[in-house]
Amino acid sequence: MKQIITIAAILVVSSAASPAFAQDSKPFHGPWVAANIGYDVFDADGSDEEDGSSEDGIAYGVSLGYDYNFGNFVVGVEGEIGDSSVSASETDVLEAGDELALKAGRDLYAGIRLGVPVSDTLLIYAKGGYTNQRFNLEYTLGGETESEGDNIDGYRLGAGAEVALGKAFGRLEYRYSDYGAFSDTDLETNRHQVMLTAGLRF
């Protein structure tokens, strides 16, 4: 009899607590993890505007973060590791007739996100932060090629929209990353990306 009363008490408490828990839950709130894929345009521009080069390809990676919903706005932190299929090249960089080819390697990002909930299922946001890009370089002059790699610090700015689908979510995002000059050359590097994201909140 005591066991039955105990079980009944647990059920009553559970049923009373469940609605309260549901009311406390918020959209766009809590830890999340996601996969990203999208269109990537990599630019490498020299001091002469006519020497610029641009290539496009596919960017992909994984990201995670934590969002806090204050009601009228959402603040979050996020990190990402990615890679890309694109590269760019330019001639007459250091000497006449030479060629410098750059391929984007792994990309690390850490930043913040600020959003405004339009509804319980739609968030409009902007983002910004630090990015560290691995570049692989090949320099060719007179038929001889030298290769090396370098990590370059830069910044990233972006904006997008997030749609909540229960614990799952999807995002469409544009972002611009600027890495400045590569090594001791005048080759300025930056990229434009349009990314699709699919993720899950916990």
UniProtKB/TrEMBL annotation:
Q: What is its main location?
A: membrane
Please verify whether the record's keywords include Membrane: yes
> What Pfam families does the record point to?
OMP_b-brl (PF13505)
Question: Does this entry carry the keyword Kinase?
Answer: no
Quick one: a GO cellular component term? membrane
* Origin: domain of life: Bacteria
Q: Which residues form the signal peptide?
A: 1-22
Domain Outer membrane protein beta-barrel: start-end pairs: 9-197
Location(s) in or outside the cell = Membrane
PANTHER family per UniProt: BLL7405 PROTEIN
The UniProt entry's sequence similarity note says: Belongs to the Omp25/RopB family.
Query: What's the protein name?
Result: Outer membrane beta-barrel protein
What is the native source organism of this protein? Answer: Qipengyuania gaetbuli
